[in-house]
Amino acid sequence: MKRGFPNHPYIPNSVPEVEKEMLDFLGMKSLDDLHKNVPDALMFKGEMNIPEAFGSEYEMRRYVEELLDRDGDGKKYLNFLGAGCWQHYVPAICDEVNSRGEFLTAYGGEPYNELGRFQTQFEYQSLVAELVGMDVVNVPAIDWAQASATTCAMAQRKTGRKQIILPEILDPQKRSIIENFGRATTEFVTVACTEDGQIDLEDLKKKVGKDTAGVYFENPNYLGVIETRGEEISRIAHEAGAESLVGVDPITLGVMAPPPEYGADIVCGELQPLGIHMNYGGGLAGFMATRDEEDYVNEYPSRLFGIAPTTHPGEYGFGDVAYDRTSFGNLRDGAKEYVGTQAALWGLTAGVYLATMGPAGMEEVGQTCMQNARYAVQKLNGIKGIKANSLGGQYFKEFVVDFNATGKTVAEIQKILLSEGIFGGKDISGEFPRLGQSALYCVTEIHTQRDIDRLVNVLARVLA
Amino acid sequence: MKRIDRSSKVRTHFHQAKWDEPIIFELSTPGERGVSVPKAGQAVAAAVGDGVSDLPAALRRKERPALPEISQNRLLRHYLRLSQMTLGADVNIEIGQGTCTMKYSPKVNEQLAKKLWEMHPLQDEDTAQGILQIFYETDQYMREISGLDKFTFQPGGGSQAIFLMASLVRAYFESRGEDRNEVITTLYSHPSDAAAPAVTGYKIVYLQPDPETGLPDPEAFKAVCTDKTAAFMVANPEDTGLYNGQIGELVKHAHSVGALCCYDQANGNAVLGVARAKEAGFDMCHFNLHKTFSSPHGCSGPACGATGVVEKLIPFLPVPSVEYDGKKYYLDYGFADTKYGVTKVREFMGVAPVVLKAYCWIRMLGPNGLWQATKTAVLNNNYLFKRMMSIPGISAYYEDGNNQRVEQCRYTMEQVTKDTGVTSGDVQRRMMDFGMHFWTSHHPYYLPEPITLEPTESPSRKDIDEYADTVAHIIKECYEDPETVKTAPHRSTIHQVDERWMDDPEGWAITWKIYNRKYND
């Protein structure tokens, strides 16, 4: 059996002469001598059925490019999909910074050899803190779903209570992640939503009690609905001694009030809209934010980078705040949850985005999203059989489109749109059966009037 | 002129970039803009007004967020200066981050990953056949590498993969109506092998290493295996770099009491093509595609903990999987046990660009290259081991001359500390004066004054020699000039951080606004 790959470009010491000299240095005859503690019974003696290596970088590139060139994306198609991953404009500087090899290939060094990693994370924490109106923000979690799962767990630990109330309207995959994560410690209860998609306050009052650790809601929620009674929800939670837990899409916060203004104790959300490409879902990263109070800070499982002086005047230094909270510290399974590699590069990127946009840019992008979404709703409602923003509440960039009166299923409409080069909104007929044939559409600042008109014209034509 | 003297084996004149760069808020000048933002078209505005007036007054933001206002070129300069003060693996001889497998991340893979930028995870399968094929084939390759029967790429990191494994264990026993509440792990497995199962509700039982061999004592293992044992969760090699040749017997014994065995293969670079999870009898395993399979670490993510299982556990894997019907790749939900299955640990399909980069790497190596990568990584480590062990004061525990390390090793410099008072933390900082770095160990330190090194297959012999020469140079300094080492770094970006406030709620400053609030004098 042929073994080994001499002179591989990624493996300098695969040069046979060097390899032999190193083996000689070790008093070994061959590479087989290197795994002498692996007993014969555990040795793999077969062959891995993996294709032989490409002969050149060019051939591999060409092969993979040809594979991926077949795929569509939000540039080749006009995209109205959102539902947890949204197409916004990514300023070039975001990609320029996060593709720098120094950042891209850094990992777990110290503030001495990786000062830039520490400072960019500290800056990201600080920038998001300004946006969401909180004091403390974590080094990113895996995604919003994990951030919300941890948000619930933080409330559960802080209050010592076992019940978390989740809204009826919630991304089903997020609900699954939250419930799987919290099962050992937490009882999850669902609060109903009213016809307009907001939390049913009467039902909430019935559900909260002395066991309630927190009430989690989102603004806007999964179906795009802006929760206008956040202050009331927080008050109900607080009166029961529970925490108000609010999930947000941070790109709304240039125009929308930050959640602490309506009583949020822990805020969480998704960073992907802030300068991170969708990456087929790979661009997600979650954040949590709280006030700078010890009993909140001590519940974070994540790393938190703090600023500190050095032995030399005038130098900014950084380090881990309250490191022993984390499973990297001395407590291991006694730590708060677990920490590990998550999504730091996207945190850095979100920081670049917020600094690039500035206060004016965040306001403008929020306004453009709201205007474009409203224009789309208005025009779609001009088509017979379509009811856009069918839940009727306020919305930011996403809204439900009801196709029930068109006589066509969402799946059929999606297929037609696809053939016209359009990704229609997400089919939610399976997730929310009571809405029948409905889809969740997303319109952002990337959509021009012409884009929206194109969608509307196609729908008007095929539904006529 | 005289020939310039470059005979020093270490970078005596190194100095890291030091820009005295302000915090980004300090760069703000009112009115400056980093980017111009698309505005709604005139007809749009005419039709709908300003949009934001639709928000109830209480939900309108009253004051703009206090973000900095900085022109684009000044922003770029700020971040590039910060990048220069970051010694990623592209810049560094990155041998020092043991357990992290800091191998070279090929640039062609980064360029190819850009093709995924604008893909939406919910777009029609017909428009995503290329990336779905890559998911499907990477699953096939991981099956070959591990011998297991199916992989998911949903976990967004190694720790989340361990959490998934613990969740799979719980799902499996729930489906069988068995009440088991303990997970056994070893002291030298990753802390998440204890911390993540604890989140799923398991009580953690630690196996201590045998003082002679460094490996768990099989008799002690048998003593803690009971009908309450749900799983044995273990790395092999462990963080000591020792491969446990008895792993097959331990797994067999765990199975005999009805437990499942979960293989943390974060250290998988030691055994590609050499030893597999299957032959050792494991029920599941995970590989870190951002370590063993070359995707870059990105300051700590995005990442992927590819998790594989044996046939009987497939129904409990998260959904969806990618299947192929001979003509078309498609997302499959049908395999899942809807009552007990884990359903989801991360949104959508996982981190597609990381899967793509791992795929590209595998395709550039092929089966022989994977084997070569492991063999060279182990060769490099043994070469480094011999060089390190020849440095007076450096040693390794569990070293009887027969206990060969595979891809990494945790050394100790306790003798140096006894002799000079200089700690491994001091030497760590001094390494940075030579453009290098090492990692000590997870906490708490089970081995005194630790240094954990893992060369991977990426450095050349000259790189390894330079690294070992630098360690030797500094250890010599410990004896001759301990103050220089204790007060290091001297030629790094900053000097020693005064960490007094890091555990003090009154003093810590996790954001710029808190810093300004607490230190407003």
What is this structure, in a nutshell?
The complex is a heterodimer of chains A (464) and B (521). Chain A has 464 residues and is of the alpha/beta class. Helices cover 35% and strands 14% of the residues of chain A.
Outline the secondary-structure elements.
The complex is a heterodimer of chains A (464) and B (521).
Chain A: H1 16-25, H2 57-69, E1 78-79, H3 92-98, H4 101-104, H5 115-132, E2 136-137, H6 144-159, E3 163-167, H7 172-182, E4 187-191, H8 201-207, E5 212-219, H9 230-239, E6 243-248, E7 266-270, E8 286-290, H10 294-297, E9 305-309, E10 316-320, H11 344-380, E11 387-388, E12 398-402, H12 410-419, E13 422-423, E14 426-427, E15 438-442, H13 449-463
Parallel strand pairs in A: 1-13, 3-4, 3-5, 5-6, 6-7
Antiparallel strand pairs in A: 2-8, 7-8, 9-10, 11-12, 12-15, 14-15
Helix pairs in contact in A: 3-11, 5-11, 6-7, 11-13
Chain B: H1 42-48, H2 72-84, H3 107-113, H4 129-146, E1 150-152, H5 158-175, E2 182-186, H6 192-199, E3 203-207, H7 218-224, E4 229-235, H8 247-256, E5 260-264, H9 277-280, E6 284-288, E7 305-309, E8 321-324, E9 329-332, H10 352-389, E10 395-396, E11 409-412, H11 414-420, H12 424-431, E12 450-453, H13 461-480, H14 482-486, H15 512-518
Parallel strand pairs in B: 2-3, 2-4, 4-5, 5-6
Antiparallel strand pairs in B: 1-7, 6-7, 8-9, 10-11, 11-12
Helix pairs in contact in B: 3-10, 4-10, 5-6, 10-13
Task: Explain what the structure shows.
- The complex is a heterodimer of chains A (464) and B (521).
- Chain A has 464 residues and is an alpha/beta fold.
- Chain A folds into three domains: 12-60, no CATH class; 78-88 and 366-463, Alpha-Beta Complex (Aspartate Aminotransferase, domain 1), CATH 3.90.1150; 92-353, Type I PLP-dependent aspartate aminotransferase-like (Major domain) (Aspartate Aminotransferase, domain 2), CATH 3.40.640.10.
- Helices cover 35% and strands 14% of the residues of chain A.
- Chain A has 13 helices and 15 strands.
- Chain A has helices at 16-25, 57-69, 92-98, 101-104, 115-132, 144-159, 172-182, 201-207, 230-239, 294-297, 344-380, 410-419, 449-463, and strands spanning 78-79, 136-137, 163-167, 187-191, 212-219, 243-248, 266-270, 286-290, 305-309, 316-320, 387-388, 398-402, 422-423, 426-427, 438-442.
- In chain A, the strands form four sheets. In chain A, strands 2-8-7-6-5-3-4 form a seven-stranded mixed beta sheet, sandwiched between helices. Chain A has a four-stranded antiparallel beta sheet with strand order 11-12-15-14. Chain A has a two-stranded parallel ribbon with strand order 1-13.
- In chain A, helix 6 (144-159) crosses helix 7.
- Chain A is globular.
- The N and C termini of chain A lie far apart (67 Å).
- The mean pLDDT of chain A is 97.
- Chain B has a domain at 110-362: 3-Layer(aba) Sandwich (Aspartate Aminotransferase, domain 2), CATH 3.40.640.10.
- Chain B has helices at 42-48, 72-84, 107-113, 129-146, 158-175, 192-199, 218-224, 247-256, 277-280, 352-389, 414-420, 424-431, 461-480, 482-486, 512-518, and strands spanning 150-152, 182-186, 203-207, 229-235, 260-264, 284-288, 305-309, 321-324, 329-332, 395-396, 409-412, 450-453.
- Chain B has 521 residues and is α/β, with parallel strands linked by helices.
- The model of chain B has no long low-confidence stretch (mean pLDDT 96).
- In chain B, the strands form three sheets. Chain B has a seven-stranded mixed beta sheet, with helices on both faces.
- Chain B is built from 15 helices and twelve strands.
- The chains are: A alpha/beta (464), B alpha/beta (521).
- Chains A and B meet through helix 1, helix 2, helix 3, helix 4 and helix 5 of A and helix 1, helix 2, helix 3, helix 4 and helix 5 of B.
